[in-house]
Write a structure and sequence with these properties.
The protein is mainly α and 505 residues long. Helices cover 65% and strands 0% of the residues.
Length: 505
């Protein structure tokens, strides 16, 4: 009887399903890919439930997207929702509770309330992919999904014995951003992979091929290099990099910085340098003999770069343009100056608008007609060329990306989160397990560097909130919550007449 049931399942379910999937694979389009992935998702659901937490951590900093879903959300958001749901079920069933970190929970919930209230007041979320008449809903999903992702990260602790492996894949998954440029270079045959890898970082490469710009930038190298750089510092620290019996560590660090130079982003190389300097002070190496070694190594690495800067590829010259005294190609210098002026002019235009949105933020909803008209007017010279970015809410400024969409309430919530995050990471660094010392030191360094970069150089709340929240959630999960200062046992003065007799063996 049992064999008959199995045979019936094969003929009624398995064979028709295999034929349908085979047809869809032979004639690939968006609908076929979605159906195939949905079937595989259902079949793999037991494994996903078991490994969802680890998969979310792995995908958090990666370039993988859910191209089969409306809006092409980042794939880690799907796993964040799955992991959070499983965490809620475990909590209700009494199997496991979320790790407590009230310092972070309060500002995150406050920020979520501000986002939801702003969307409600400003006419709804606006999911164009689901038939809405406006754009911008994806950004609401990203911000709220990131907040849910924090609770998903803290839904279960991570063993200290798995900490090194977890942190390794958390950062190294960022190497996948380089695939965007590789796919573009290999040609249209592989463009179908953009259903799974975000193509955004190949846009500047394509623009240069079609004559839009002097410099061909391999933008995906910036996050890839940053991922490798972060892994090296989190795994070995600066002290471990300069161990002379392991020179390949220093070579890896130099390779990461070289990759960032080829991305063409001035901010990218500035961030890595800031990360290195902050980590140097956090480790207390400025008081040791490594200070002259560190300075000497920096000079040896940068001297040939600066001396022969004008002979290097344009992308490298553009990244080095962050140093005003460097001799680079005049066309590259003109482009970088124009890029800086473009931002400054946009900021001068936007700042007078800030008081209008202090009470209730502008939100993320965008009228498609306004966006189209701004694009056309900018292209024809009727409006400044930053008009399209202005209409889309891409201000290229961290403070503006919080103030205008969510007003004073969102700004208070975000600054509260940053302050609480610094406190939590400091506590985990100082009072955490000694075996997590290197990791906790780097998390504190990375968070400080991201805060400085976001507030004073470049930032975008909707795309960078996950960087802050990811580090905080992973720190809480690795340390089992927030580490506190151990209580000091005080000896009570007990009168000798009240003291209990001590039994002597």
């Amino acid at each position: 009887m049992f064999s008959f049931h199995r045979l019936l399942i094969v003929y009624v379910v398995a064979i028709p399903l295999a034929l349908i999937l085979g047809y869809m694979v032979a004639t690939p389009d968006m609908a076929s890919i979605a159906v195939v992935l949905l079937v595989f998702f259902v079949l793999a659901l037991p494994l996903l439930m078991q490994w969802s937490h680890w998969l979310m951590i792995f995908l958090w900093n990666s370039a993988f997207i859910a191209g089969f879903l409306p809006g092409q959300l980042r794939l880690w958001l799907v796993f964040a929702a799955l992991t959070f749901g499983l965490g809620v079920v475990n909590y209700v069933m009494g199997h496991r509770s979320f790790l407590r970190a009230p310092e972070l929970t309060k500002p995150l919930l406050f920020l979520a309330a501000v986002v939801v209230l702003t969307a409600k007041i400003r006419g709804g979320v606006g999911l164009k992919a689901l038939g809405s008449g406006s754009y911008g809903g994806k950004h609401y999903v990203e911000v709220l999904g990131t907040i849910i992702g924090y609770f998903a990260l803290t839904s279960q602790p991570i063993s200290i014995f798995k900490s090194a492996r977890t942190v390794k894949w958390f950062f190294l998954s960022g190497l996948s951003y380089g695939l965007a440029n590789l796919i573009y270079a290999l040609g249209p045959t592989l463009y179908i992979l953009y259903y799974f890898i975000s193509p955004d970082f190949a846009a500047s490469q394509a623009a240069a091929d079609f004559g839009a710009g002097v410099v061909k930038r391999f933008a995906g190298l910036a996050p890839s290099a940053t991922a490798l750089f972060c892994f090296i510092l989190a795994r070995w620290g600066i002290r471990g990099v300069f161990e002379w019996d392991k020179p390949w560590r220093l070579l890896l660090l130099i390779a990461a910085m070289a990759g960032c130079l080829f991305s063409g982003f001035r901010g990218g190389i500035a961030f890595l340098c800031a990360l290195l300097v902050v980590q140097f002070f956090i480790e207390g190496l400025w008081r040791t003999s490594l200070l002259p070694v560190f300075v000497g190594a920096g000079i040896l690495c940068m001297a040939p770069v600066l001396l022969f800067a004008n002979k290097m590829p344009f992308a490298v010259q553009r990244a080095l343009a962050v140093l005003p005294a460097v001799d680079i190609n005049p066309n590259v210098r003109t482009e970088t100056i124009g890029s800086t002026e473009w931002r400054l002019e946009m900021w001068r235009t936007v700042w007078p608008e800030v008081p209008k949105y202090l009470l209730v933020g502008k939100g993320y909803a965008i009228d498609p007609t306004d966006l189209y008209l701004a694009s056309e007017a900018g292209r024809r010279g009727l409006l400044p060329d930053y008009s399209e970015s202005l209409t889309a809410g891409d201000y290229h400024s961290g403070p503006l990306s919080v103030l205008i969409p969510f007003g004073a309430g969102g700004t208070i919530a975000f600054l509260w989160l940053l302050g609480a995050g610094i406190k939590v990471l400091y506590c985990n660094r100082r009072y955490g397990d000694a075996r997590l010392k290197l990791i906790n030191d780097f998390f504190f360094t990375y968070f400080l560097a991201e805060c400085l970069f976001f507030l004073f150089v470049f930032g975008d709340l909707k795309s960078q909130l996950c960087l802050f929240v990811g580090i905080l959630g992973l720190s809480v999960s690795l340390n089992g919550g927030v580490c506190r200062k151990p209580a000091v046992a005080r000896k009570a003065a007990i009168p000798s007449s009240l003291a209990e007799p001590v039994a002597v063996a």
